[in-house]
Amino acid sequence: DNLMKCYILYELLKKQLSILEEAEGGFDQFTRSYRSFGVHRQSDNSLFFKEWAPAAEALFLTGEFNNWNKFSHPYTKKEFGKWELIVPPKHDNSPAVGHNTKLKVLVHTKDGERLYRISPWAKYVTREEKSVIYDWVHWDPPQLYSHIHPRPKKPTSLRIYEAHVGIASPEPKIASYTNFTHNVLPRIKDLGYNCIQLMAIMEHAYYASFGYQITSFFAASSRYGTPEELKQLIDVAHSMGIVVLLDVVHSHASKNTEDGLNRFDGSDSCFFHSPPRGEHLMWDSRLFNYSSWEVLRFLLSNLRWWMEEYRFDGFRFDGVTSMLYHHHGIGTGFSGDYSEYFGLQVDEDSLVYLMLANHILHTLYPDCITVAEDVSGMPALCRRVEEGGLGFDYRLAMAIPDKWIQILKEFKDEDWNMGNIVHTLTNRRYGEKCIAYAESHDQALVGDKTLAFWLMDKEMYTNMSTLIPMSSITDRGMQLHKMIRLLTHGLGGEGYLNFMGNEFGHPEWLDFPREGNNQSYHYARRQFNLLDTDHLRYRQLYAFDRDMNRTEDKYGWLAAPPAFISAKHEGDKVIVFDRANVLFIFNFHPDKSFQDYRVGVEAPGKYKIKLDSDEVLYGGHGRLDHNTEFFTEPTPFNGRCNSVMVNNFPRDTFDSSKVVLLNVIL
């Protein structure tokens, strides 16, 4: 029955593609609608304007070019709610609307209202310092940025650095695209990440929304700089072999009217469902009508725009759970029962849109990467559309960070349940790739705590200098910070994600300027300067994160089949598994170390230490001899054909927690 529903969805997708072919000449032209909608300079320097406003009585163009005359430039009404206008060039043959000048669409409604609006297709919008409302600015610079470097190949092992341009500086201000290019990209490259997930790029009037209340879908946020500077950022990332994903928000839109999509043509629908279906009560935002032809044109062209104009390499789709269900996941728990995923509560229009988006993206750009943020566990989310799946490449393993926070909040070290940890890290749908992460931006936000803060709290302000002895709290926190990350990296998925700054245990939470904090930027920054101070322990955590990624790059466990877990010993608090010819051994016991500890391995041969969390370089105690060679014995153990005796777990006066990563030399 459920397979039949997948088949029906695929048939609906094929029907939609067939209609696209018939009505628009195929999806290639349809998804390039940004070339005709909005404003475009023609070869004779005339300007062509086009909008979709089905409920409007009349449309006029006004702006600095005509001294804000309300009626001198009327649009002509066309079929299907379209409006068009051609503005001829000036007498000197230059465009009538100059680069960097302001425009507005004036909408006359059937009720006699006059509404000032920004074109939904606006490519650049800015806000005056003392103004609340954003302005549509015509972007037509004399020199456009030209990309130099080709897109890197799609990584087999995806290591994602989740980043926000505006907070990417130690200074209490909004940082720039240029700052990110010059100061942050080299750090990301050094850390061994091969993918950047850029948040808050699509223009959002409210900075504190973290970029999730979009007002202008085609505009790169001007608070960080110009469109050309963002293009350069991506181009430089490509030169480093790093792919760049856009955090795209097609699940909802801001309620703003004057500088958003809401009530663009004066109606309560247009791009959205009419209320109540068209409103998200928890997010206080509008919900798209995915069954509307023009909404499909708008959203699919939006994806194509970011791929073509800025050369992004793919997308992380935000809020997918809200899209999948009519209940939007509000007040709903998911047990994994198939009735939760294939009933009447599922929004077929949204599903078909996501299938359409993934099908088009992967057809046009075979190396495109799409990641779904879904907490529900929807089956076949990451299966090909031809199989009745939604076509995503990866899904976020959202249960993992919740589990780590729960453990740190609720359990003493001696009560940690190894089996439960392993279950959470491995509980994923077979054949559907997951992005594992110990924490993301969600845990960094004010009101929550990062893992480093849960582990070390106020000690991070007083005991992070190597010039003074480590307290027991700092020692425990440093070791567990590394172990949690590597265990998640090695066992949790087919990709790994880290939020900027968390790799070195950033000492403070994230809070954007708002009324509640007196518009302060103090917490809306990342203190990379801490890494430039030689005697701070943040450098040690940074070094471990770097070498963890570099070790994965060498051995490729993320691209390997799932790990074989040979031990999850509750009494010893030990977890052992092997993946990609690499043997992982974790000792989570708070006060017990082991001599001559036997662990199972599959591949016979000689093993050597390749990564050791107890190394002094990483803030450990340097108790393991890295010249030691471990030879297997043909003694089956814990489900493996061979075993090896590990005899280097000496007792530690503070905390015996440590991890050893061994690689077999065949």
What does this molecule look like?
- By secondary structure, the protein is α/β, with parallel strands linked by helices.
- It is 25% helix and 21% strand.
- The protein is built from 14 helices and 29 strands.
- The strands form 7 sheets. The protein has an 8-stranded parallel β-barrel, surrounded by 4 helices.
- The longest helix has 23 residues.
- It is globular and about 85 Å long.
- About 1% of the residues have low confidence.
- Pathway: Glycan biosynthesis.
- Keywords: Glycosyltransferase, Transferase.
The N- and C-terminal alpha carbons lie at a distance of 48 Å
Residue share in β-strands: 15-25%
**Strands in their spatial order, largest beta sheet:** 10-11-14-17-18-19-20-21
Number of strands: 29
**Helicity range:** 25-40%
Mean pLDDT: 94
Tally of individual helices = 14
| Major beta-sheet overview | 8 strands, parallel, barrel
Low-confidence segments, ≥5 residues, pLDDT <50? 650-656
Q: Per the principal axes of the C-alpha atoms, what is the gross shape?
A: globular
Which structural class should the secondary elements be placed in?
alpha/beta
Our Rg estimate from Cα atoms comes to 27 Å
Walk me through the topology.
Layout lengths: L1 H23 L2 H4 L7 E4 L5 E6 L3 E8 L12 E2 L4 E6 L14 E8 L4 E4 L7 E2 L8 E3 L20 E7 L12 H15 L3 E5 L2 E2 L12 E5 L6 H13 L3 E6 L30 E2 L4 E2 L6 H17 L4 E4 L2 H5 L23 H17 L4 E4 L21 E3 L2 H12 L7 H9 L7 E3 L4 H4 L6 H6 L2 H4 L9 H20 L3 E5 L38 H18 L8 E6 L4 E6 L2 E6 L9 E5 L4 E7 L16 E3 L10 E5 L11 E8 L1
